[in-house]
Amino acid sequence: MKRPVIDGGGAFNDTIRQILDTFMSLENPEYGGNGRLFTGDSSKLISSTAPISVLDELNIFGDILFLAIIHEAPFPVDLDIILFKYCLDLESTITLKDVERFNPVMYNLARNVLNADPDVDLSTIDGFDQWAEDKEISVIKEKQIGIDQIKDYFYQESITYEDIIQKLVFAPPHLNRRQNMVRNWFNEWLRTQRKEELQEFCRLAT
Length: 206
Fold this sequence. Notes:
There is one protein chain. This protein has helices at 10-24, 56-70, 81-87, 96-102, 104-114, 128-134, 138-141, 147-155, 161-167, 177-191, 195-205; strands spanning 38-39, 45-46. By secondary structure, it is mainly α. The protein folds into three domains: 10-95, no CATH class; 103-155, no CATH class; 161-205, no CATH class. Strand 1 (38-39) and strand 2 (45-46) form a beta hairpin. The longest helix has 15 residues, at 10-24. The radius of gyration is 23 Å and the shape is flat.
């Protein structure tokens, strides 16, 4: 009989494997037992000590798999492993390898930079100058930066207090004297914060 089928290989199968690996790595004391949601290395059996009340993660996976089957298409088109980890509050587990399918150009550039010799001229790395121009990173365009610093840039979002102040929106647009005093005080407070504190502020504010 001629019936529509799902392509169980390729990108679909690869992403299912990645997502299963992510679930297999989940640990939480609320799961009971050894804190693992799944037992065994390959059996993928749900731990008998895991209470139903903390199995939202399985519901998420079930919804994702159901939508993938219903649409008869591999869901990496719309849901990359990076987004999946982000939805599960697993940002700290995102690696450069995860970027490969999400942004292959950036992945290749980052790999070339990370594997380069410490004294390499960054201009010789394919695509680096164009990336620096697009990002308007003058210190990089002037080659006044080393490999270790560019590694930090790839792995940690660059943010300054000027970036935040420029994006702040106050309502109403025309502030009275007291409101202006508060805004100026807040801007001064931002200027005294370290990068880590600014990043935490942005996460809380959004």
